[in-house]
Amino acid sequence: MSKALERRAKFREELILAAERSIGTGGLAGLKTRDLAREIGVANGAVYNLVEDMDELTLRVGSRTLARLDAALTVAESDGPDSPRETLVRIAVAYCDFAAENLELWRALFEHRMTPGKPIPEWAVSEQMNLFRHIYAPLATLFPRRSPEELGVTARSLFSAVHGMVLLGLEQKLIAVPIEALRREIAAIVKAMVEGLAG
Amino acid sequence: MSKALERRAKFREELILAAERSIGTGGLAGLKTRDLAREIGVANGAVYNLVEDMDELTLRVGSRTLARLDAALTVAESDGPDSPRETLVRIAVAYCDFAAENLELWRALFEHRMTPGKPIPEWAVSEQMNLFRHIYAPLATLFPRRSPEELGVTARSLFSAVHGMVLLGLEQKLIAVPIEALRREIAAIVKAMVEGLAG
Predict the structure, then answer these.
(1) pTM of the prediction?
(2) Percentage of chain A surpassing pLDDT 70?
(3) Closest to A65 (Cα-Cα) out of A43, A95, A35, A87
């Protein structure tokens, strides 16, 4: 790599880390190119030599968040009995814990909207889809006769339902719940859903 | 009522309706006092003689949305067999339909944040809480031995889970689903949750 490219790679990494700190503290709404440029010591305009636009920057931060979520779910998978039902409950509770501990970065994953008309890049879609394997695998063990498509639908529904409970449970708004109570509720509901689906 | 008060009441109503149309079209982010003032024919500053602030205006629009949601859920309740399980499924599907048909106004209910430090007014909290009766009542029939507190927790979890499925299902993003498929999924998952909870 040439010196110039090395230098660019280094600044790009610093920019993404600065954006991650900024989102982690003040959420997506507080992300300002000018502040990031100052923090890493480049001119305002130079930011767009490092990333294509704010969409790419936000997605790169999201990519780091998803990698840490992936690691947390992988730990939860093996952190208890091998039964697919219990694994699904552990995964759901781990998702809740991750969201609580990374509140702003986790919110940013869902609040970010691409500039109108711009599709989400392929690499970002695959990273997001890849996380579904944590739910898909135990469901496939639990329901060996269901088609991959059916399992995909169930995985998506389970995820969305747990996401809703975490989202509203962590809101400091209408129905804020102490985290321990929220974890218990999520475990109870996921258990009920899985029992009910197994008929 | 004096002429001046009548006039104020009329402008206030017009302001709320203009804000509702604006949110319904362009979402909460597109709501601009200046546009509303022009639309109803008052000076910019006069808006804050009609409502306290943007929080109140947004909550008043939300109040109208909640009233229509309440009516839609009431229709769904009596629109089929009296069984509490089937009622819960109908309520969930009706919630999905309402969200799909009132996408921006429904989103605004959840996206609105009060100015930091300002609590949500009592009247708005009660209106929101009042809607839980649609879920609470069939759950109370289904689980007659559970305490009101336990039923409240279950009602909240069921609502949050369905909300999550509707939210991510209607997103034009990662996991957009055709509405008919979404309705089927929600019905299946709610049925499974209720079966599982009934053990």
Answers:
(1) 0.91
(2) 97
(3) A95
State the burial class of residue A188 (Cβ atoms within 10 Å of its Cβ: 0-12, 13-18, 19+): middle
- Per-residue confidence (pLDDT) for residue A173, from 0 to 100: 52
A128 to chain B, any CB pair closer than 8 A? The answer is: yes
Alpha carbon B116 to chain centroid, angstroms:
22
Contact in structure between A104 and A27 (CB atoms under 8 Å): yes
Question: Phi and psi for B172 in degrees, rounded to 5?
Answer: -85, 60
Q: Which amino acid is at B111?
A: E
Better pLDDT: B16 or B179: B16
User: Residue A181: what pLDDT?
Assistant: 86
Handedness of CA A110, A116, A117, A123 (dihedral sign): negative
DSSP string, A1-38: --HHHHHHHHHHHHHHHHHHHHHHHHTGGG--HHHHHH
Residue of chain B minimizing CA distance to A109: B174
How far apart are alpha carbons A69 and A91 in whole angstroms?
11
Q: Return the number of other C-beta atoms located less than 10 Å from residue B59's C-beta.
A: 22
Amino acid at B196: G
pLDDT, tens only, B121-137 = 999 999 999 999 999 99
- How many CB pairs lie under 8 A apart between chains A and B? 108
Say whether residue B187 is in contact with chain A using an 8 A CB cutoff. Answer: no
Taking the Cβ of residue A196 and every Cβ of chain B, the question of whether any pair is shorter than 8 Å is answered with: yes
Please state, in angstroms and as integers, the Cα–Cα distance from residue A181 to each residue in A69, A167, A170, A177, A185, following that order. 22, 14, 11, 6, 6
pLDDT of residue A172: 59
Tens of pLDDT along B7-39?
Answer: 999 999 999 999 999 999 999 999 999 999 999
End-to-end CA distance of chain A: 59
Strands, E assignment, B38-183: none
Tokens of B60: 């008043």
What local confidence, expressed as pLDDT, does residue A179 receive? 86
Which ipTM value was assigned to this complex? 0.87
